[in-house]
Every structure is written in structure tokens, then in C-alpha cells.
Amino acid sequence: MILLKYSLSNIKCDIIGLSEIRRKGNEIIEEGNHIFCYTGELQGRHGVGFLIKKQYKNNIENYIGISDRVCLLNMKFEKVTISIIQVYAPTSEAPEEEVEVFYNQIDEAQNLARGKLILMGDFNAKIGQRKSPENSIMGPYCYGKRNNRGGRLLQYALTNKFTIINTIFKKKVKNLWTWTSPDRKYKNQIDYILSNNPKLFTNIEVLKNSIFPSDHRLLRGTLQLKNLRKSRATFRGTQTDLSNEAKRQSYLKALIDKSKIIQWENGEDVESFYLKREKELSSLYKTTNKMLKKDYENHRKEVIEKYLVTTGSQKKAYKKLNTEKKWIPTLNDPTNKSKSQTRENLINIASDFYRNLYQSENNTDNEYRKYEIQLDNPIDPFNGSEIMEKIEKLRNEKSPGPDNIPNEALKVGKDVLIDHITILFNKILERQEIPKNWGESRIILLYKKGNPSDINNYRPISLLPSMYKLFATCLEKRIATNIEANQPVEQAGFRPGYSTMDHIHTVDQVVEKHMEFNRPLYLAYIDYAKAFDSISHASIWQALIQQGIPTIYINIIKDIYEKSISRVKLDRLGPTIYIRRGVKQGDPLSPKLFISVLQNVMKDLDWNKKGILIGTEFLSNLRFADDIVLFAKNSKQLEKMLEELNRASQSVGLQLNTSKTKVATNSYPSPIMVNGARIEYVDDYIYLGKQINFKKTRHEDEIERRISITWKKYWSFKEILKSKLPLKLKKKVMDSCLLPCLSYGAQTWIYTNKIKNKIRSCQRAMERSVLGIKVKDRQRSEYIRRKTKIIDAVQHTKRLKWKWAGHIARTIDNRWTKRVTTWTGPSGNRRVGKPKNRWVDEILKIAGTDWTQKAKNRKRWRQLEEAYTREGTTPS
């Protein structure tokens, strides 16, 4: 693609049809000055598409990939709509059945066309010279002899009233052929432009000066459309300016120098000379192609190496190199239950979806009314150091909002701006109002997983004004203390000192101990539909009041949401949407506001005696933001808890997604109904990134899953790990990217010999792959490790577990992580035979039964860590 764009840089082409692009997928990609649309079913085979100048992006109505041989582009220019069908026909060796399928696909594209038709591409057909009955579909300017496929093309043109545009403009014979054989001996005309409206065209020509290494020549048609916006690009003409003596002398000197290069051989005729030059030019094309590819590869390596050395971040390197922006190709249209590909329809579908989503179901007149300020609740004004601290923490290279002010602008100008910003922020505190334009945002859609045509499978991220985000960050710090004080240990999301590992470990220990003592356990994994986008604003104000947030701050947050408007941004902007419910994803305030509302929901549930008894208290639920898991001792209790949670959630606008909410158990799967829907039982569930199940092999299953994920990650870094970059940079990628991927959740693993061998085998295989060493080379592991010098995965993961055990032992906030670890388990009977390994057994073996006390001595615990990771015994 790089070479193609380079080849076309000096050629005036606004829309280019592409045949045999050999890419798999159906994508629309915006990169640099072009929009690249393509369709391919298999990598390296067939494929069609278009390359469109970016200035025409708003003229694109839709792109439809019919197959890997036919695609359609509809473009609207004021009152004129053009439908371009690009094709790549089967070759002459293909069976007739395949040819018929090809023409049927063209018919399908015609049925989806919206305007004046242009049919073009590589037809692999020779139409030869015109015959008298064919005057209506072709002109006299033809090349070569007709073959059967040419006859089939002419038959199709007659049936559909297409004119073959190549043949109606007078050109020299040498300017008619479009394809040449590899040895340059044979030339044919097999590429055509056809149209049912030939008057659109003012010219057609075969271009001979493209440096793209292809056996086809570029065929260019010129259209004259009324009021068509002309290309902004400027193209240099071939005429030389010889208006003064200095330029004439310079021209003569260059002419003399160049003419010395041309050497005629005695007896060489014109044709021989031309063919010789043509071969030299062909060789030059190939050399240029190789040099361009090599140059681009070197450029990528230089950028990757630079970022790995200076920042250690391969992510920043790829972000620098990846200038592509993929468009959403299709969306399901709820009005007619079909897929829409029209660009205008797509933006309207997305805008309507979020307009309905953010529309309040209980929009009362006083929802945004300010509260009376409490005299006993004074507020300190913002000071410069408080704001400066937040400015310095702003992240670079983040997309700006509607104001187009990047964070870097605030950071660079902080010393000049700080006094003015402080005055502004304190004015906002005084008046309890934000500037109106701070309420504007742009919604971009990030694909999650599932059907890409389903808009529910996209996450809306709000791009907000940079000044607003700075203010919101300062405000968030002020309200965080009160909100944090009101959060129970069950909530670990968006809280300092908590992580996903707290809840993963808790769930894992509860499962382990119920399996050990053969006691029934029921788990429900809750899924809310669009949780962050659904909570009512009234529930936010109520939660903030109940959690003791000062009235001035509540009034400012009310004003923020009263002024909140947004527009969906795809390849174009949608109409204005008023935000009347939900919190904006991307807003610094949103996480704290959401967990405040969720806490109000949960605290009103009478669950003090529900769930599972651990010690003297019941564990009923764990929350990581909106990721909730419920615990119950039987299915009836769990069903009742789900019903109660559903009712309480609805009161604040949250809707339980019964199709994605799942239940798991080690007992009998009795039916559980919520809102008339039956909740599905599952054997495995990925909770906060770790697979949870009740199988005996659950730890081995999780290790294998992590190994599979790590290999996928490995091959995503193929450009680095399989390149000639220095080994120390590859080590950095393996230690900083692959090892964390492999070891996620390692704090909760049980390290049997089988599991340790799986981890070692994975890491050694990756080391061999990086070094290019095969198993049959029989190189010892010690030799390979001396070369790579990477961190040993088994020791690293065991060290993570040991540090985590020490962290658990030292916690003093009564969180469930520690309570379930020291819990002996539910009352019950173990199975007969050898007991299964438990998480704590490895800790007990090294540190003894009083390990929770020893862990409080950090120095002693570090000494024991060395013994554990070396798999030795307690040091004396």
C-alpha cells in the first residue's frame, strides 16, 4: 500500500479502483490523505477495493463488499450520485460456472447501486474489434482479437445497456493495451471502464508512467460533474519554464549531461532500442519497489528501537507508526431490521441509539435545581499548587475534545496560565456554574467484542474539553475522600489500595474451600446493560447528599450535567444529543459518581443474613465497579437475591441484562428466573480476567488459557521479536509485555509440578523462537537463558504469590481477602483419600502455621521469599 500511494503521488486520481489486493477482511480505513476500502475472503487471494482521496470522505454514501471479486462504492456529489462497481474477473482458466457466479454478483451490486453506474476493473477478457451490431455499446478504438470471455462481457454490456468507455475516445494503438506478459512479448486490453451514462466522461487514457510494479497499466477516466468540488491537490505539469537566459542555460546543461548516458549501439534499430530501455525501466521499477519496502521496514525498526530504548514502551512505538483509523463498515438498522452501510445512515443510527439511551425516563422539572448552601459546610478555594499538581499529571498524546486543546498545551504553558486558571476555577466555585462550552463533548465508539454490526458492542468514550477535564480532576480529588469513606470492603473498583486481585483471590478461596468440604455454593455473575450510561441523574444527587458531599460541589456537578450535550463522531459528526442520564465515560468524575450510586443501591438491600457465612459475618456480594458476583448457599436464596437486586437497580435506572448474567454451581442446577427470563448456568466464567470454575483441573485450565493468550500476544510482537533488533530490546518486550500477560492472576495459583512445567515449557519455546533455535538443535535451557537473560517465569510468578500472601497478612481493614484466606471453610466432610493441594499449603510449608504473624516482619518475609522461589527450605 505504501508503494502504491508513492506511485500515485504524482498522478491526478481522486478515486482509484483496485483489483487483486490480496487482503482478508471487509474494512474501511482512513490513513493519511486517503480512505482505503477493501473486501477479501482469503489472505493472499483475489480481493477488490477502492482508494479514495480523503477530501471526498463526506461524499461517500456507502461501501459494500459483495465478494472478493465485486464491490460497490456509492458517492454523492450535490445532486449527482455515482455508483462505481469495481471487479476482478476469473481468469481464462476458470470454469464457466465461476464466471456465471461473477456476473451474478455484478447484478447484485447493480441492485444496490443508487445512481449513475460505472463498472470497471480487471475483466480478464479481450473484446477485440467492433462488429456492426455492437455500435451501441462500443466505439472503434479497440485492441487485439476477441476471445470467449470478451464475448461474454459484450453480451453483458448489451443486456444492461453499458458502453465500454475505453473504445469511444480516439487514442493511438500503443495507448490502448492495459496488460503485458512478464516477458513483455504479449500485450492485451483486458481492463475496462463501462457506464450506462457515457456522457459523464470527457476523456479516458492509459497511463504509462506509474512506477508501481504491475503487469497492468493504470486506466484513468475523467468525469465532468456539475458543481463537483475539484481536488485541492496540486499537480506539477511537464512544461519547463525557459523564460530567462539563466533557466535556458541550466536546461541545456542538464540536457547535455543526460544525453551522455544514452548510448546507441551500431546497427541497433528503434524497436530494439525501445525494448532495451523498457527492460531497464522494468528492472528499475523492481529495484525501487525493493528499496521502498526495505526503507519502510528500516523506518519501522528505527521508530520501535527508539521508543523501546527511550521509554521502554512498544505501545507508544506502534501508536506512532499506526496512522490508520478504521471506520465502522455496517450497523444494524432497528427500523427495518437490516444492515445499513450508508455513511449518513450509520451516523444517524448511532446518534439515535445514544439519544434514546441518554434520554431520561423521568425527566422532572426540578431535576437540575440548585440546593441551598449549608452555612456549616465551608469550602476552601482552589490554590495554585493544587491545580499545578493536576496539570503535571495530565497524560500526553490524548485525543482533545471539541476545543482541540491538547493536554500538552496546558503542561507547556502551565507557568503562564496557572494564575488565570486558578481565578477561573474559583469563579466556578463562587457561582456554582461552569462555562457553557465545557458541557460539549464528542462520543467516539470503541469496539469491544461480538458482532461489529451491533452498536451495543461498542463502548462510548466522551472526548471532553481539556480545561474541563483539568477542573473535573481537581473536583474529583475533593469529593473522593467522602465517597471513599462510604464504600464498603465489598467494592474494590476505582479505589486506592484495591485491585482486581482482591476479589479474584476471594472468589477463588471461597470456591476452593467449598470444594474441599463438599458444600454447595451458588455464584451469580451480574451484567448490567449499559451500566455507566443508564443511571439516573436524580440518583446521583441523592447518593452525593447521603454520602456527605458539600452542597456547592453537588450544585456544580448538577450544572455540568445540565449543560451536557454531545455528538457522535464516526467518519462525520452526528446531530446534537442531550445527556439526561448516565455518566460520561472518559470524565474524571464518572467512576466516583457511579460507585456512589451503586453503594446506595446495595446498602438498602437487607442482605445481612444472606450469602455464605464466613466466621461471624455473611459474604453476599463482591463488586469491582459494575462487575458484581453474588454468593448463595442454595438456588432459592440466589434467585431471591437476584430479584431484589434487580428491583433496587431499576430504581436508579440500571437494567439487569438477563441474557449475559450467568450462574455457576457445584451442586444441582435448579432453574433460576428473573423478570420471567431463565438465567443460564455455565461451567466456566471469566471474572475480572481469570477463569473461575468448580473443576478439579481448574488451575491447570487457567494456566493453559493464559499460555494461549500469551502466545497470541507473542505473535502480535512478531515484528520486534523475530527481527534483527538487539536482543536486549527483545528481552525488554518479553519481560514487560509477555511476562505480565502470562503471570496475570499468578497470586492465586497452586504450583504443582505439572503447572510449573507448563509455564517453563511456554517460556522456553518463546526463547527458542526469538533466537531462531529449533528443538532438534538440542540446545540446553541454561545456554538459551544465558543468551536471553529474561526473567524466569516460574520464579517470577511464585514471587508474586509470596508477596501477595504477605500483603494479605498485613491488611488491617477487615477486607474479605484476608478473612477468606484464614477461614477454615464451611462445615462439612472432606473426600476420602489424599487431600487436594490448597493455596495456603505452599505458604505453610515454608513459613509455618504462624505465617500471618511472620509476614508482618517484612525483612524476615523477604528472606522466606527467597527460600520459596528457590523451592528450598526455611533458612536458619
Automatic annotation (TrEMBL):
Signal peptide (residue range): none
Residue span(s) of domain Reverse transcriptase: 427-692
GO biological process terms, semicolon-separated: DNA biosynthetic process
SUPFAM superfamilies reported in the protein's UniProt record: DNA/RNA polymerases (SSF56672), DNase I-like (SSF56219)
InterPro entries named in the record: DNA/RNA_pol_sf, Endo/exonu/phosph_ase_sf, Endo/exonuclease/phosphatase, Rev_trsase/Diguanyl_cyclase, RT_dom
GO molecular function term, any single one: catalytic activity
Protein name: Reverse transcriptase domain-containing protein
Native species: Euphydryas editha
